[in-house]
């Protein structure tokens, strides 16, 4: 965020002024406190998404606890690798990693069709797609303009709406599905998150959803919706075991996950740019390549240890700009805390005990924010003229349509259905193709884009930023 005052970590006048630059270290006590702040800002997302996937494919309680535990452990290792690279793996930037929302819908599809082992097999085998993307990105960048990537991110949020609403009502198959207690608890979490986000500043705003979940936990107690009985029996410490849930390889599942890797790569590129913007510069080629390679390598590592793919967390990029602390040492401390938490099953058990309506209320906010981020990418990176609106309308309609009415494609071969009923793949592919083949509009002679009543707001306002 621009600031009117200078500071020791700034690298460009009037832009990206920070209190601590990327290579600077605050005092240890301050670093620990700031690292915990990063942990709290990303904690809910990195545990909520595995819970949604686990619920979507019907995993048992112990399996769900294990996956949450591994999600924390892998996120910590991946964060540390991004901060302190191993060879070409890592951006050497303050990037916090966690479970990627891009994969939620595809992995539910794969898990429902082929089982948990096929998820891990696809995650491992398809990971080189993002690694390769890091090495060839400069050559293919033009194929993925903000219009295309923004539409795909919007579809991620839109296709997850039914999942969020199911959890808000009590969870799929719950005997109390849709009763007033469930809906009221979900609404409480939603309202608290909005109020804290909009009426408070500083860390409370950054952690507004986490605050709302804590309130939801407390409110669930008198309603009899919180069961922590399994926490007492959970171990205090356990080591991760690779391939404990097995692995299998389904070609259609691998292709579906490979497409998601391309999408999450675009998200990571944006987060890398946002991170370096906080210190007033563009990312170097090595930083972008290292960040993408780390995404792919650490996602394969996640699949090996029973977790889901990891990616950079945008909320922590925003936290860096908000606090003025871009120190990668601080982010490494957050990664260390994640590793420790991932080795403590009791923590995972507490998270897994989250009542479905609480998770649903938080999911409404989280998935809604994913949609709004995609909308912002489109509006900032493309003029909203007839061509753009046509691509947007057709891509989103088809993507949402096949996802929400998948039974309309039930006559297709089984292997084809997993692609044809994925809103992200259908909508993303349509956007990619239409953007490549539709002619670009040229304003009439003497008329600038600002004079266009549809595109004027974007070209006159958004680009000024």
Whole-angstrom Rg: 22 Å
Shape: globular
| Gap between N and C termini | 12 Å
What series of H and E elements makes up the topology? HHEHHHHHHHHHHHEHHHHHHHH
Overall pLDDT level: 80
Overall strand count: 2
Uncertain parts: 1-16, 449-465
- Percentage of residues in DSSP E strands: under 5%
Helix content: 55-70%
Main sheet: strands, sense, barrel = 2 strands, antiparallel
Q: Total number of helical segments? A: 21
Structural class: mainly alpha
Which properties best describe this structure?
465 residues, 21 helices, disordered N terminus, mainly alpha, disordered C terminus
Summarize the model shown.
With about 475 residues, the protein is mainly α. The chain has helices spanning about 30-55, 60-85, 105-115, 115-125, 130-140, 145-160, 160-170, 180-200, 200-205, 210-220, 230-235, 250-275, 285-305, 315-325, 330-340, 345-350, 355-380, 385-405, 415-420, 425-435, 455-460, and strands at about 95-100, 310.
Fold topology:
Blueprint: H1 28-56, H2 61-83, E1 97-99, H3 104-114, H4 116-126, H5 128-140, H6 146-159, H7 161-168, H8 180-199, H9 202-206, H10 208-220, H11 229-233, H12 251-277, H13 285-304, E2 310-312, H14 314-323, H15 328-342, H16 345-352, H17 356-381, H18 386-404, H19 414-420, H20 423-437, H21 456-461
Antiparallel strand pairs: 1-2
Structure notes:
There is one protein chain. This protein has 465 residues and is mainly α. It contains 21 helices and 2 strands. The protein has a two-stranded antiparallel sheet with strand order 1-2. Helix 4 packs across helix 12, helix 8 packs across helix 17 and helix 18 packs antiparallel against helix 20. The longest helix has 29 residues. The N and C termini lie close together (12 Å). 52% of the residues are buried. The N terminus and C terminus are likely disordered.
């Amino acid at each position: 965020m621009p600031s009117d005052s200078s500071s020791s970590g700034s690298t460009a006048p009037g832009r990206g002024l920070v209190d601590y630059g990327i290579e600077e270290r605050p005092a240890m006590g301050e670093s620990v406190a700031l690292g915990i702040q990063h942990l709290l800002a990303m904690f809910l997302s990195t545990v909520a998404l595995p819970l949604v996937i686990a619920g979507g494919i019907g995993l048992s309680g112990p399996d769900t606890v294990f996956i949450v535990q591994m999600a924390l452990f892998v996120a910590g290792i991946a964060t540390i690798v991004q901060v302190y690279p191993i060879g070409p793996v890592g951006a050497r930037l303050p990037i916090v990693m966690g479970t990627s929302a891009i994969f939620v819908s595809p992995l539910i599809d794969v898990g429902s069709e082929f089982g948990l082992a096929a998820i891990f097999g696809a995650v491992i085998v398809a990971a080189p797609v993002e690694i390769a993307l890091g090495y060839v990105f400069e050559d293919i960048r033009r194929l993925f303009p903000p219009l295309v990537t923004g539409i795909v991110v919007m579809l991620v949020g839109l296709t997850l709406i039914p999942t969020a609403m199911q959890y808000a009502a009590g969870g799929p198959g719950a005997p109390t599905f849709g009763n007033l207690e469930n809906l009221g608890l979900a609404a409480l979490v939603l309202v608290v998150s909005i109020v804290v986000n909009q009426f408070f500043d500083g860390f409370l705003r950054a952690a507004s959803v986490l605050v709302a979940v804590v309130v939801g936990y407390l409110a669930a107690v008198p309603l009899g919706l919180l069961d922590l009985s399994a926490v007492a029996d959970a171990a205090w410490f356990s080591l991760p075991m690779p391939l404990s849930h097995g692995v299998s390889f389904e070609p259609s599942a691998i292709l579906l996950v490979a497409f998601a890797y391309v999408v999450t790569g675009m998200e990571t590129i944006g987060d890398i740019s946002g991170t370096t913007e906080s210190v007033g510069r563009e990312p170097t080629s090595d930083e972008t390549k290292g960040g993408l390679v780390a995404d792919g390598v650490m996602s394969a590592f996640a699949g090996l240890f029973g977790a889901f793919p990891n990616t950079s967390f945008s909320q922590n990029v925003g936290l860096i700009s908000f606090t003025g602390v871009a120190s990668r040492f601080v982010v490494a401390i957050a990664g260390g805390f994640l590793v420790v938490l991932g080795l403590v099953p009791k923590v995972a058990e507490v998270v897994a005990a989250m009542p479905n309506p609480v998770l649903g209320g938080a999911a409404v906010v989280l998935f809604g924010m994913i949609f709004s981020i995609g909308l912002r990418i489109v509006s900032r990176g493309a003029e909203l003229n007839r061509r753009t609106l046509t691509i947007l309308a057709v891509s989103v309609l088809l993507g949402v349509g096949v996802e929400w009415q998948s039974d309309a494609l039930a006559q297709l071969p089984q292997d084809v259905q997993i692609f044809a009923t994925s809103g992200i793949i259908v909508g993303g592919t349509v956007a990619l193709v239409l953007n490549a083949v539709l002619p670009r509009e040229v304003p009439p002679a003497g008329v600038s884009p600002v004079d266009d009543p549809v595109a004027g707001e974007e070209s006159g306002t958004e680009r000024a930023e």
